[in-house]
């Protein structure tokens, strides 16, 4: 079990199991939604993600995609894609212990800002790692 939540503590969640993926995303959509140069994500089975307190706000950021965040402090929390309803992505940095699940790959490097470094030890993909 792992737990995490937003900056102000209004939203708390618990993860069970092991993520099927741990990546750093450089896509323009993640950058805009987070205000950061890249976002680290963990992919879990939806049944392994439990909201313990609070109610995340939701935003449909593109067709078939919903991102959730704390409506009070703005912390980005999840990414849900209609193409993969059985899975949900959780922002790694919102975990209480983000070091528990280090990334194994970087994706959407074709969208990366020029000054953002990459990690030499991680697999690299110009787009999605799934295709």
How would you describe this structure to a colleague?
- This protein is mainly beta and about 130 residues long.
- The protein has one domain: Beta Complex (Metal Binding Protein, Guanine Nucleotide Exchange Factor, Chain A).
- The protein is about 5% helix and about 40% strand.
- The protein contains one helix and eleven strands.
- An eight-stranded mixed sheet has the order 6-7-8-9-4-3-10-11, with helices on one face. A three-stranded antiparallel sheet has the order 1-2-5, with no helix packed on it.
- The model has no long low-confidence stretch (mean pLDDT about 95).
How would the blueprint of this fold be written?
Elements: E1 2-5, E2 12-15, E3 21-25, H1 28-34, E4 39-45, E5 49-53, E6 57-62, E7 65-69, E8 76-81, E9 87-91, E10 105-107, E11 123-124
Parallel strand pairs: 3-10, 10-11
Antiparallel strand pairs: 1-2, 2-5, 3-4, 4-9, 6-7, 7-8, 8-9
Structural class comes to mainly beta
- At CATH level 3, the topology is Metal Binding Protein, Guanine Nucleotide Exchange Factor, Chain A
Percent range for β-strand residues = 35-45%
Order of helical and strand elements? EEEHEEEEEEEE
The main pleated sheet reads as: 8 strands, mixed
Which segments are poorly predicted (pLDDT under 50) over 5 or more consecutive residues?
none
Average of per-residue pLDDT values? 95
